[in-house]
Amino acid sequence: MNERARRERRIWRPEIGADIDEELAYHLEMRERDYRERGLSPADARDAARRRFGDPSTIRSAVRTIDERAARERRRAGMWTDFRQDILYACRGLRRTPGFTAIAVLTLALGIGANTAIFSVINTVLLGSLPFPDADRLVFIWNTSDGQPEPIGPGRLRDLQTQVTSFESFAGISHISFTLTGRGEAERIGGSSVSSGFFDTLGARPLVGEPFHKGVADPSAVVLSERLWVRRFGADPSIVGRTITLNGRPRQVVAVMPRRFIWPAITAQPSAADTGPELWVPGGPGDVPRPATNEDEDMTGYRNTGYLRSVARLKPGVTFAQARAEVASAGTRLSRSHPEDDGRGATLVGIRNQFAGAVERPLLVLAGAVAFVLAIACANVASLLLGRGAARRRDLALRRALGASRARIVRQLVTESIVLSVAGAAAGLLLAWWGSASLLSLTPPDMAGLTRSGIDARVLLFTLGIAVAVGLAFGLVPAIELSRDQLTDALAEGGSRSSGSRRTSRTRDGLVTLEIAVAVVLLVGSTLLVRSFTALTRVDTGIDTHNLLTFDITVTGDRAEYQSRQVQFYDSLIQRLEAVPGVRAVGAAVTLPIGGDDFGTGYLVEGRPVPKTALRAGYQIVMPGYFHAMGIPIRRGRDFRSSDDRKAPPIVLVNETLARAQWPGQDPVGRRVRFDDDGQWMTIVGVVGDIRHLGPSRPPRPELYQSVTQRSFPFIAFVVRTERDPYDVMPSIRRAVVSLDPDLPLSGVRTMDEHVARALSKPKFLSTLVASFGGLAVSLAIVGIYGMMAWSVTERRQEIAIRMALGASREKMLTMVLGRALFLAAIGISLGLAIAPLATRTLSGLLYGITPTDPVAFAATGVALGAVAALSALVPALRAARVQPAAVVKY
Amino acid sequence: MHDRTTVDLLQGTLAALILKSLSWGPLHGYGIARWIEQITEDELLVEEGSLYPALHRLQARGLVTSEWTLSETNRRVRCYTLTEHGRQQLRAELSRWERFSEVVTRALQSRRPKTA
Q1: How high is the pLDDT of residue A487?
Q2: N or C: which end of chain A has fewer CB within 10 A?
Q3: How far is A11 from chain B (nearest CA, A)?
Q4: A261 lies in a domain?
């Protein structure tokens, strides 16, 4: 029996029980009397009556159960009738005051709509179901270096796989670009080379065909995504078994994965940086996924070449924490027995964190922001209800005098507020529906893949829940407050200012103060985010990003076979492009900063002992002329030259940060370094300016540059410095490329400014949204302050008139009203500034170049809201000053 | 054995008997028991107590209402009255019973059919 039922039973037992006892006793007595009248002795008569009746206690409890159930049903029915009555009454009342109703519903619609919109995104991104059976048993395995996750080398991954017992199955993943040729324009497509057990581990089923399985994978098989199948092959149902050409080699399509098989690019820093792979091929020798750089090499022995991501399924009964502990200790153990593992650790990331970890915090910050907006909306509507209720005081007092209980009146008033909030929620749903469309258009690309947000049953339930909670929240205070009046007070008032209205005024003061406090918190947060974003846009990336076009190419066939041929081809393409009118300079790099790939490496300095923790640097491979095209200055020494080929001694360039770290105050040119997994010493021939390779928010780090002429890959990114808008020059550039090779696909065509904008899209998204919510909060606060002051001036007209009649000046009245508003604002602002640090603490890590407790942001917000409060109170204050004593006092 | 059958049969029809007893006017529980006793000439041996759960169930279903009145001996007595809904229900029960008994009677009195 639950608590409520028990309570009901306690309440109802005495009355029902006593009635039944009385009824049954009467029966027994009458029967006894009958028997006595028939001549039985009193004792025999009682026995006979009992026998005839049966066991009274059994009957008593049976009857009571029936009566209690009936009583409960009656009460329920009664409550339902009351509830319907209350709703009707509330609707009638709200229709009579359309202005109030409109403002209240609009306010609530804004508050609830914002919450619904954000929740609909959270619902899909953070709570949505993943398209794999038992998806929450899937984990990703990463190396850790200085606590940062990074990909693993094949040898180390294999060791982890054999030593860790927590996994049921296991698959490695490597991201590779493929060039699809034949039938239509050549196209570069993102794909993955995966272990044969990949689909088995995920438990994913195909749309058509049959993907490869653990241990049985035809090396020339390929599995397509539905997207690619539809786009390139017109959803051809006979695709399975057909041969397509990828990177110049034939591959047989064995299966197509369905649309709901959503698989983002897996990156070490949780973020879905790119659109996910569109095709999957099995790994190379030893079932090891092939690296992007070389498709044929046997990679099984490599430990330090970290390019593998890997997904595993936990054994039944093994918890995530257990598995992570096991992987961590295995990682440390392996690093002890294998010095080439560079002392790395290993860790696990759960699938939800892997897929949505990067957007989780921004989304939670937004959820907090909209909750604040809703709180302000509630305070506003509560304050409005109080103001409106004051006019109904006498009506309510009369109803109480006529016998309505206080609880009944509170219930009626709360029903009214719930009707309001449900109406607000309905309007809010419309706003959210419209809003989530524009939210989607604002969404940064790496979030867009995950936001298929829509309004589903869960969102509707959430909105309804909010509506009821909000209705209770803003309805209860005024309801209790208004039902307090006794008839005598209310009737005695006779329109003048009374204790009741003074109390209402105090409550409204409190609400407005609170509202200002919440607005301050939100505004401080948005000021911080906006200032952080502004700081990011002003960061010097070290690159001249203006009028700089970038695109990627991948070479295939004969041309890709030898590095010397690749370099030759790149050289001739650069020459063609340089000849295009409007082109100032051309460069090329394997890894493009800001939005491109990134390589990292460990290195050693000649003549120094091997350090305990490996020296790490970014590792970029660029063509001669790249620095000039990018606008990166060469501080010392020289640039690469075409003559620095594979026959010449190996050379590198370093950036200023690396030079400063290793040779402070000295010239590094002429010194030698080498990669920690490769024996050749390379001479430093120059020092170049620092750039922010990973984007504006990441400070420069040590970089090593090698020349493509000494190490090349079959793919490269071009940068073209143009004289005017790069897209004007683009057609000529495309023609130049086609003239060299009509089958060469150009992909990722973007300006560097676009790359930067893309890198900044998430902070922009967050600051834009939080700032708009901040703006919304401030406008609601303005409405609140204005409404409260206007009401208070109306209430106090008589008092003001008398004061003026007694000689108070208009200025005095003006300052009195303004002073009151500023006093409340001061309390609210101090309160808000005191709470704000708790809220803005959640922003640390999302802010750039500003601390969560930045004094300027705090002070500016305080001053701004003070000014806002004064402005909102100005109109009511002026009205107070214009009161004509004669007109009012006459009454 | 014979008694058990009677009681089982009665369970289903007790409600109908109660409704019938109230069709002439309000009665208290003991009055209903007395009516059943007289009308069936004590043929139906039933524990009188089982009348009360049946009565209260009828009340919960809205077929009868009850009210506390004073008896001739000035005692508080609960009196039951048939509602309009109860009256309709009685009519329905009656016709159902008639059909039922007719069928059962016909069945029980039938002769063994001649086999061809």
Answers
A1: 53
A2: N
A3: 19
A4: yes
pLDDT of residue A7 exceeding 80, the answer is no
What is the rounded distance in angstroms from the CA atom of residue A319 to the CA atom of residue A83? 49
For each of the domains in chain B, give its residue range(s) and CATH number, in order of start: 2-107 (1.10.10.10)
What's the alpha-carbon Rg for chain B, to the nearest Å? 17
Q: State the residue range of the domain holding A825.
A: 358-538+761-889
Residues A663 and A778 in one domain: no
CB A470 within 8 A of CB A378: yes
Measured from the Cβ of residue A660, the count of other Cβ atoms closer than 10 Å reads: 16
- Residue-wise pLDDT for A360-380, tens only, equals 788 888 899 999 999 999 888
A56 neighbourhood in chain B, CB within 8 Å = 49
Pick the closest to residue A60 from A25, A104, A10 (CA basis).
A25
Q: Does residue A529 or residue A480 have the better pLDDT?
A: A529
Which of A340, A356, A372 is the last residue before a domain boundary?
Answer: A356
pLDDT in tens, A761-794: 888 888 888 888 899 888 888 888 888 888 888 8
3-state class (DSSP) for residue A345 = strand
Beta bridge partners of A312: A139, A170
From CA A559, how far away is CA A582, in angstroms rounded? 29
ipTM for this model: 0.84
Worst-scoring range by mean pLDDT, A175-184, A201-210, A264-273, B82-91? Answer: A264-273
| DSSP secondary structure string for all residues of A636-701 | EE----TT--TTSPPEEEEEHHHHHHHSTTS--TT-EEEETTS---EEEEEEE----TT-TTS---
Residue A624 has pLDDT above 60, yes or no: yes
* pLDDT for A389: 72
Instruction: Note whether A238 and A198 are same-domain residues.
Output: yes
Of B48, B56, B57, the CB nearest to A52: B48
Pick the residue of A33, A53, A58, A60 with the most B CBs within 10 A to test the interface with B by mutation. Answer: A53
| CA A573 – CA A425 distance, rounded (Å) | 60
Q: Quote the DSSP letter at residue A339.
A: G
Closest residue in chain A to residue B77, using alpha carbons only: A23
Contact A163, A141 (CB under 8 A): no
A202 and A344 assigned to the same domain: yes
Q: Which chain B residues are Cβ-neighbours of A31 within 8 angstroms?
A: 30, 33, 48
- Of the CA atoms within 13 Å of residue A806, those in its CB half-sphere come to 8
User: Cα dihedral angle (A598, A643, A688, A690), rounded to 10 degrees?
Assistant: -10
Where residue A189 falls (left for φ over 0; alpha for ψ -120 to 50; beta otherwise) is beta
Q: How open is the CA angle A13-A19-A21, to the nearest 5 degrees? A: 95
Residue-level pLDDT at A445: 56
Residue whose structure tokens are 């305080």: A862
φ, ψ of residue A138 to 5 degrees: the values are -90, 135
A135 in contact with B, Cβ within 8 Å: no
Mean pLDDT of the A500-514 span: 81
In whole angstroms, give the CA distance from residue A209 to residue A238.
10
Q: Please tell me the pTM assigned to this model.
A: 0.71
Nearest Cα to Cα of residue A713 among A561, A873, A846: A561
The domain tally of chain A equals 4
Maximal C-alpha separation, chain B: 72
